[in-house]
Amino acid sequence: MADDMNLRVLLADDEEAIVHVYSVGLGHYFARAEYDPLRRADLTMCRQGDEAVELVREALDAGEPFDVVVLDVRMPPGIDGVEAARRIRALMPCVQILFVSGFSDYGRSELEELVPPATQMDYVEKPVRLSVLADKIISAAERARSFVQADSSNGTGGTEGGPNGS
Q: 0.90 cut: is pTM over it?
């Protein structure tokens, strides 16, 4: 994890209302977690796939990578969430990615093939219950933490193949 105190989560959705709901709802959910570091988060919002890729790049350059990236599958007019995930995965090979969609463009198995590995992604259907999304974010963060711990025990110190690929 980028910080012992807070998760770093990037959420991208083209619909302004959904970004607002994520910001307020998840912000409230994670702000209430006083005693559990996996339940405190710094949330970054954006509305396009290419913006998400750029934010990931900037976070890596600043040495503060995201622990979890949440992407809407459809984000017109720019690149969709699947292409954004491919580009993000190229920057951060082991990042945890959650896809969110209200359409059936891609099934989970197809997403697993397009943006492997399956162990580092999940899928949530819209309409999204914020409690479900928050739980998925926490589960993804726990998987990310387990990769860091596994790398540390292998002597790589979490620097090779960890959740942030850095």
A: no
